[in-house]
Amino acid sequence: MTTHVDLSGAAWHKSSYSNGDGGNCVEVARGLPGVVPVRDSKRAGSVGAVVVFPAGGWGAFVDAVKRRQF
After folding, report:
1. pLDDT tens, 1-48?
2. Contacts of 15 (CB under 8 A, 6+ apart)
C-alpha cells in the first residue's frame, strides 16, 4: 500500500549516534501524526529517499535497539 505523507514542513533531526563527518547519518522527522519518516541524510533531496513507519512500529524498533535485541 502506498500512502502520500506531506513532508514539506517536516523538521528533520539527525540521530545522536550519527558520526560528525557527514556520513552514516540517519534523520528522523518528529511531530507528524501517526507516522515517523526516516531518511539517509546523504540522500535527503532524492526522490523516494524517505521511508515512513507507523509511529508504534518505529517506537517498538527503537526500544528493541536500546535493549540490544538487534
Report:
1. 556 888 888 888 887 776 666 566 888 998 888 999 998 877 766 666
2. 25, 26, 27, 28
